[in-house]
Specification:
With 311 residues, the protein is mainly β. It has 1 helix and 27 strands. The radius of gyration is 17 Å and the shape is globular.
Length: 311
């Protein structure tokens, strides 16, 4: 058992999978039997082999961005027809890859107040997009912002019924498809809301506050399990934490990596009981992150699998 901010949580052992070669690895996803993630500053989506090999699936660096915005690929998700969606953070657009071409799927510039962030796609092809609320890299102060919804027909709207969030970051959907869970990075908590039959948010609630390892910095990428529990990375530290659906912190993972920052996680593997954790060294300096390419991936065996939870 641990002490301090993780007092009472059981520590689970972690093993390395990828020892380097990634810039800032974000939005890990288990899809069709493989682990995918966004190599954020390298502008690509990659597939990670069982042996830790890195295969580029989509290289977006050759596209001409809107208004010359800096290309940063981040949240991803698959549509029911198999096409891959990719958030282009600074452009505020969602790209779509059909296996041959990379095009704009949805332009969010009129509805997004800030750089867009993570994504989850439901069984109907509806995409939920988080945004930071402000430009961290420009030195702006945190500002609350809403979640954006892209309907299956490609139209985008603000999910006003859910309210605003303190830097909504990682986002997932429970196994029954009825509840959206998000990590409020600057709100320093895990929040959930239910979806009614019209797709509107109801019953917004707090699942759990997050340990504030660094002042004002809370959870990042998340993975929802089939019992409604949530794994989340703590970017101010090397820790990944699990809370139950009732908000009880019961497990913690600590990466044995000096100066490493736990970024995000995903449940995958044959029974979706392998927790994949992405970690990086440098998020504020893009050039350094790309040049040194010290991003890593780790694995942990966990008691409860993802089941049908998304992503």
């Amino acid at each position: 058992m641990t002490e301090g901010p993780f007092d009472g949580a059981e520590v689970l052992p972690v093993a390395p999978l990828v020892s380097g070669g990634l810039s800032w690895p974000e939005a890990p996803r288990w899809h069709d039997g493989s682990l995918y993630l966004s190599d954020m500053y390298a502008g690509r989506v990659v597939r990670i082999g069982d042996d830790g090999s890195i295969e580029t699936i989509v290289d977006a660096t050759s596209r001409k961005t809107i208004d010359g915005a800096e290309l940063v690929t981040i949240g991803t998700g698959w549509l029911p027809d198999g096409r891959l969606l990719i958030n282009s953070m600074n452009e505020k657009v969602v790209l779509v890859w059909d296996g041959d071409a990379l095009d704009v799927y949805a332009d969010l510039r009129e509805v997004a107040q800030s750089p867009i962030n993570d994504m989850v796609v439901d069984e109907h092809g509806r995409a939920y997009i988080t945004q930071m609320g402000f430009d961290l890299w420009a030195g702006e102060l945190p500002e609350d912002s809403p979640i954006i919804v892209i309907e299956p027909d490609g139209s985008a709207r603000v999910l006003e019924s859910a309210g605003t969030f303190g830097g909504a970051n990682g986002i997932g959907i429970t196994a029954d498809g009825k509840t959206v869970v998000t990590a409020e990075n600057f709100g320093v908590k895990i929040t959930a809301f239910d979806l009614d039959e019209a797709g509107e948010a109801v019953n917004r609630r707090l699942i759990a506050p997050s340990p504030a390892i660094s002042p004002g910095v809370g959870p990042d990428g998340i993975a929802v399990d089939e019992a409604g529990g949530v794994w989340y990375g703590l970017p101010g530290s090397e820790h990944v934490v699990h809370v139950t659906a009732d908000g009880v912190m019961d497990y913690v993972v600590r990466l044995p990596w000096e100066d490493g920052i736990a970024v995000a996680c995903a449940l995958g593997g044959e029974d979706r009981r392998t927790l994949f954790i992405t970690a990086g060294q440098e998020v504020m300096d893009r050039e350094k992150s790309v040049e040194e390419s010290e991003g890593t991936v780790w694995t942990v065996q966990v008691p409860v699998g993802a089941g049908a939870a998304r992503p």
